[in-house]
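Posting for a labmate who doesn't have an account.
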Amino acid sequence: MCHGTPHPRALQRGARTSVPSFGPGRSRRRRADGLSDMATAISMPKLGMTMEEGTVTDWPLEPGKAVEKGEVVLVIESEKAEVEIEAPASGVFRHIYVEEGDTVPCGTLLAAITETADEPFDAGAFHATEDRPEMKGDRGLRVKGDSDPKPGAASSGAGARKPIAPAARAAARKFGLDPQEVAGTGPNGRVTKQDVEVYAKAREALVPVDSSVSLEVLTSGTGDPVVLLPGLGTDVSAFARQIPLLAERFRVHGVNPRGVGFSDSPSSESYDVAQMAADATATYPGSAHVIGASLGSAAALELALNHPERAKTLTLITPFVDVSPRLRALGDAWPRLAAQADPETLAAALMPWFFSASFLADDAARARTLRGLAQTVARVPATTLDRMITGMLSWSNSRSADLSRISVPTLVIAASEDLLVPDSELIAQAIPGATLLVVEGAGHAVALESPDLVNQAITAHLG
């Protein structure tokens, strides 16, 4: 068992308290080669009756450094406090078994101290002869740098459970949330207390669109409503360069579709485009200026056709009515890559499809945009992509003959270097009275690549 009582100040969240490390002390063993090992274990303490696990948040010392008894050798986090752990003996800080950010059960071997820097040390024998029940048997612990996984580290395989910081678990209980639903921003994807608090705040702002589904709707500004509908695999951050300007005159409603960001993701084979349009109408009162980008423009078209009284104007950014071969090919690969790659790798793979060659040639702009895109794609799970793409393919070429029925004042914004949707200009020709802007030299993500031209056109269109 783990023993010891924390300092009273350790029970107050945010206070950092030093306590002695909890381990078996020194033990001498006879090695097969006749040498003896003298080592001291440092293990995860039990700071209170209810503590079952803790998170290593900091290793102040590097392996190989001399350490004095009572010196702080690591910092751990429990549900109630951040606690500094002191060395139980003097010697050389030799071995680390658990990485920063990992959450492990009470009693797990964290580190070891030996008398000298060159003293032989048999980690396997040391671990196998621990006399505490929690430490008996092979728990997969290895010296830092080994290729084997560390205890408490999350597996990258499908269905792996996320590592949860103890303070995050406590916060999740307070808000009545499942911490596994929260996207983690800590090391190795660990869910932190701040992640839970942000998630809880976002959930409070959800707008119900039917009896079982609520969507994340980000609002800003005052005035007539403007509704923003983002494209495939993105969220309302796709309009980051438009929102500040629009919020000066309008009440902006940025609608994240089902399964995106904090919006609910009901189980379904597909997220239909018509459903996206119906969801959007449930997020604002009366009629609004509706702005859609890419797949969001498909939802905007559906909204204008099925609910013309809910749209004052229509702005379609790089719209399509027929899925092109390139867009279909991207749709085939995107969910698989999202399931297997980290957000940075996925974003890097998407950049050439979204932006023009001239934009990508600007190293600073490319690096800045890559960081933002990585954050965006991390908020769209592979399952959501699958459902959105299924709905998109089902909708493809179903509305070409209906464009002439659109009576809402419409602005179409196309990009001359758009690799994914080459029919934007044809859509403008088919909608009665539509205004067309072709941004020369821009790619599919024209609202991010050429925001000034896009903003000028939108401002003039909305009046």
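Reply:
Got it, the structure tokens are right above this. The chain has 14 helices and 18 strands.
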